[in-house]
Amino acid sequence: MFLGVTLLIALIILPFGLGSYGLSLMISVLIFGLFAMSLDILIGYTGLVSFNHATFFGVGAYVVAILFYRGWDNFWLALPAAVAASVLLATVLGLVVLRSSGPYFLMITLAFGQMIFALAWKWRTFTGGDDGLPGIPRPDLGFPVSMWNEQNFYYLVLVFICLSFLLLRQLFRLPLGRAIIGVKESESRMQALGYNTWLLKYLAYVIAAGFAGLAGVLYVYYNGFISPQELNWTMSGMAILMVVIGGTGTLVGPVLGAGIILILQNLLSAYTERWPLVIGMLFVICVIHVKDGIAGYVMKLWEKGWKGYESPGSEKPN
Amino acid sequence: MNPQVALQKARRLVDGENVDIVTGIVSSTVAYALRDYLVENKVPVIIANAGAAGLTGEKGSKYIFRVSFANGQYEYPMGDYAYNQLNLRRVVVMAPDYAAGLEKARGFMDSFRANGGEIIQEIYPKLGTTDYGPYLAQVNKEADAVWVHFSGTDCIRFVKQYADYGLKDILPLLATGDLVDESALPHQGDAAIGIVSSHHYSAALDTPENRKFVTSYRAKYGEEPNMYADQGYVAARVIVEALEATGGDISDTEKFLSAIRNVRFTAPRGPFKFDPETQNVIFDTYIQKTEKIHGKLVNTVIKTIPAAENGWSQPK
Amino acid sequence: MEVTQIIIQVLNSISYGLLLFLLAAGLSLIFGLMGVINLAYGSFFMLGVYLSLAVIEQTGSFILALLGAATAVSLVSMVMEVCFIRKIYNRELDQVLLTFGFAYIFMDIVRWCWGGTPQSLPKPVMLQGSISILGAIFPVYRLAVIFVGILLALVLWLIVEKTRMGVIIKAGVDDKEMVSGLGINIRLYFTLIFALGAFLAAVGGVLGGPITGAYLGLDSEILVLALAVVVIGGLGTLKGAFLGSVLIGFMETFGNAFFPNYAMMTIYITMVAVLVLKPNGLLGKDERP
């Protein structure tokens, strides 16, 4: 709890200590953080390694862009429409992909992801083809705070990511969320207990898609464009890395993971041409020496320090 | 490159390091993604490769210049040449299935058709196709020739497979200069001999400026310069010339933009200048033929089509 | 539609399918037996192409290049297995992260050593050129790929069906604990399987190189193809990998030839169709090993 509040305060005062480039990087980190957090619902809580999460991110972004191109330039209309589109797509895809499990699930989600990528690439009149849809302006929220100001946009993203975090944390404290976690731990046990595990996985898949769509909405408003590249499997792969490196099943970890990957990618590439080599080695070191991702590692350090002051019986930070 | 990564890097350059001019940009998708950000920040952009015609058309801006080419610009003259000089009437068109490939193919087809030629088949394989076998077997053998555009990793595979499937012996191959890029020629080998292509640069151009460029490029990098080398050189030269014209002063953006607009010099590729209206480059187009001279493959220029005779125009 | 066209497309399908088998057989072994997700598999293929390029430049011999590159790649993979993979059996997400890290490392090393310009691997001199089959012109090299593909499939089949190692492999796919319970050093076998998989990937790379060429990004393209083949066929079965390869070979060839508009999707449509009908692939077992 204390850790969380500290983190939140740090995030709130952060823009005052950052230059405009640092701020723009942080906005990207939070947007991708939300995207990775939504994937954590599947990887960390449901035990489903999905390889088409970028599809829902991209669909959310495309809906905003397409609406804008057709003259529907209203944030409060575009946001729910985009999230609804992602959710709707997931309700359809979920029916098919959840028949498979393990590596088969991974590959059938990949297949669907690439089919939708191809669709965005080919359907030029609607999606702009591989050139994408550029020129999407920042949203007008209807009150006198300009989203063209980077700081304001940062807070908008921060509000969304905090709300999403609280909602999801609450979800996994409810019986429904507990049951979903149960499926990850042992699907056969949950079945024996009379749960419809298929339905639980289906719900998780749909919920995760909705939050990914939300991240896509923020993404397209921030960057002002969307192209098929954002639907490609490389994007889904990157989200998986963010989740795993940050720590699965923690919601916060994936945001940290997004931060680490994006900041490294941008800083390293400015200093050395050999940055993929460095990132690759970091992944390897991470797997061998830092179990449970960065969030787990920080948590352990924190607990060690915490226990120095508190009685050993105190509740574990969540 | 991923456009989002490119935008992040542009932000670092502009917001973080206060650069005054941005140049480069290979992919049109990236160029479109960066466009609004750079224009809003009033940063002059010198595009050195991205070819989408719209970048100097409907999405043009006084901040955007292009020293490379617009898709269709050097493809268009080939339509005339194929019909009038090579006397071809029925042609099969092949290009990768993405915006640039389609736009380039359209450039050739528009002028070939305007002359009265007929396109009897259009084949658009996916970008980065490993195996052209299935497509090549479908080519209509009743054609007079095949026109293609492929670039990068595609062009070595395509040229070799075109020969492997026996098409080289029955259907002459017309192409964009990208297909026989100087860096690909040594890998394509004899399969590339006889290809007729149109381009805005050839390392084999016999002008004093190009001879000097080729010699110093070889000395420095140990390989032949190609279109990208020329485009990079021209982009840098444009910036230098514009800075010299303003005495190194870029504080007055309007003045600097107008200095860029008025840059003229003789580049390795030939006379260089901008179209003052669109700020897209104007160049002479070379019809070249790939030949083996002294054991080495080169793109010999067989005809120069001056800019004034190029019927291509910026789509509005 | 002419007969010659059909002949060529059928030959195309078979040669492409067998090329796919060459590059997917190793992944099928690693994935199926060890349960290890190896995202660096495409990198083994790519390393194979580039290393053989280096050997050919030095010696001019295609056979030496084939043996040299495949041996070097399997040695690299053994080190990787003993030092890293071994520590994370049964930790799938860490396998993803680790092997992805290696894919990054290998990709950058290749970029470092060979640069970003695409290269081509020359065909062996005696396999250059084309021949006419009933009036249809077809490259000799692809006929050779068909021949080698069938040969290799046979050899692998013999290893799996007729040797002690094969018996252990098959038993291992069914029940890992039972095999180690019999006192067999399963770890050693795992290392050998991993190296064999890498060996096959590199062989696939050298044989496929004259068709695919050598360029950055080859690794991920091959990885996706190989994963598709293995999953369509079903994990842990060479027969499945063979069936999957040939199926994709035909689907891609005929799909691209007659429905080029859907070329970006054919392989994925095939994958979805198979997995919808058979959620565990064509010959996959119901439960994972």
Provide structural commentary:
The complex is a heterotrimer of chains A (318), B (316) and C (289). Chain A has 14 helices and two strands; from the N terminus they run H-H-H-H-H-H-E-H-H-H-H-E-H-H-H-H. Chain A has 318 residues and is mainly α. Chain A has a two-stranded antiparallel ribbon. Mean pLDDT of chain A is 89; it is low at 310-318. Chain B folds into two domains: 3-70 and 211-218 and 225-282, 3-Layer(aba) Sandwich (Rossmann fold), CATH 3.40.50; 76-205 and 284-309, Response regulator (Rossmann fold, 3-Layer(aba) Sandwich), CATH 3.40.50. In chain B, the strands form three sheets. In chain B, strands 5-4-6-7-8-12-13 form a seven-stranded mixed β-sheet, covered by helices on one side. In chain B, helix 1 runs parallel beside helix 2, helix 3 (76-85) packs parallel to helix 4 and helix 9 (227-245) packs across helix 10 (253-261). The longest helix of chain B has 19 residues, at 227-245. In chain C, helix 1 runs antiparallel to helix 8 (186-212), helix 5 (140-162) crosses helix 6 and helix 9 runs parallel beside helix 11 (266-277). Chain C has helices spanning 3-34, 41-59, 62-83, 92-114, 140-162, 164-174, 176-181, 186-212, 218-233, 238-258, 266-277, and strands spanning 130-133, 136-139. Chain C has a two-stranded antiparallel sheet with strand order 1-2. The mean pLDDT of chain C is 87. Chain C has a single domain (3-277), classed as ABC transporter involved in vitamin B12 uptake, BtuC (Orthogonal Bundle), CATH 1.10.3470. Chain C is mainly alpha-helical and 289 residues long. Classes of the chains: A mainly alpha (318), B alpha/beta (316), C mainly alpha (289). The interface between A and B is medium-sized, with 29 and 25 residues.
